[in-house]
Amino acid sequence: MELLELGKLTFNLDNKRIPLNSRERSKKESKPLYPYIGANNIMGYIDEYIFDEKILCIAEDGGSWGFNQTCAKIYNEKCWVNNHAHVVTANDKVILEYLMYYLNYADLSLYINGATRGKLTKTSLNSIKIPLPPLATQKKIAAILDEADTLRQLNKDLIAKYDALTQSLFLEMFGDPVANPMGWEVKKMKEISTKIHSGNTPKGGSKVYVDKGIVFLRSQNVWKNRLELDNVAYIDEETQSKMMKSSLKNRDILMTKTGRINTENSSLGRAAMFEGEDDTANVNGHVYLIRLKEGVINEFVLHILTTNEYREHIRRVCVGGIDKRQLNKNHLEDFPIIYPPIEKQRKFITKLETIRELKQNVQQSLQKSEDLFNSLLQKAFKGELVK
Fold it and tell me: Helical H runs in the chain?
């Protein structure tokens, strides 16, 4: 299969991008109609646009460029792109869909500059070698991958609907957990907890990580009501022995301490529950552990923390700049937690379990569709998908 540099397949439109600082962006949010796009996704909506054509945006900095990591996305609508994403269109040798799938599949780490915050420069972007079959073959590959991607997206959408159903059920039974319109008893987080503690970042940073040992959870492992363990780190028993204050017990609630708040999937204040044997995992300095008192229903408190209303509360009380903020321990300790009668909490949890069982079936289907999609990707770029 012929290899051609990306720069010979695309027209670069980076010179049309316009970055906005927080003040400039706020002035353009009076009628938010058009996506404002950053390195990885849509960061919000504003009332002006720069591009009105089919474009491929590729993360320039702050992205993920490893194998099978998403760094590129097609937009075919009026939008504004800042200077954290490259913008290209295709010439007559390639179709954008094929190019997008390849960039998201390939390991582009060799093209990345910078030690602390990676950057894909325009020169490096243009030098990426793309395996290029005939145009007709590209279209067939893209069509097959589109179908597989649609299948997994349907599963993701169904999971999102179950999440929305859970949210709706909670609001129906208890109302807004922050505004508390139903007048439930309210307790501070510290009143229902035996421990609220920030994790530790061991001396030596990532150099102390080992191939296998004690699970070491970081902020990227803590998502909304789930722990993502695909990229988990490990520490040895000696390091663990020096960090016992942040060693986890079964059913501890974890919450991210720092992160960005200007994205749809804000990394600050995400919460999940650890379920495992005591002292078999630890957390770093960007994660809080919350250990609730006996008799408190962990699932109920966790659900409060993951409601949209509470996420907005967390945004309001955190400190720091526009793009990255921190949740202080005193704020976390003073979190107001509604405390309805235990019987009503248990009734909610019972209904929640039914929804979770249905959701789990869809998650299994999602995993199968993800496996299918990844298998097709490998075949596509080995020249085995379309003959």
Answer: 22-27, 96-105, 122-127, 135-174, 237-241, 298-305, 308-317, 329-333, 342-381
Neighbours of 130 (CB within 10 A): 21
What SS3 class is residue 157? helix
Pairing of strands 34-37, 80-81: parallel
Number of Cβ atoms within 10 Å of the Cβ of 383 = 13
Please indicate, yes or no, if residue 170 is contained in any of the structural domains: no
* Same domain? 126 vs 138: no
Cα–Cα distances in angstroms (integers) from residue 19 to residues 83, 112, 118, in the given order: 5, 22, 19
Same domain, yes or no, for 26 and 83?
Answer: yes
75 and 139, same domain (yes or no): no
Longest dimension (CA), the chain: 68
Tokens of 372: 């299918």
Residue type, 46: I
Please give the model's pTM, rounded to 2 decimal places. 0.72
In a domain, residue 277? The reply is: yes
How high is the mean pLDDT in each 10-residue block of the chain (387 residues)? Answer: 92 95 88 90 92 96 88 96 95 96 94 81 96 95 96 94 93 95 97 94 78 91 88 89 92 90 68 93 94 95 92 83 78 95 96 93 94 94 86
Residue 300 placed within a domain: yes
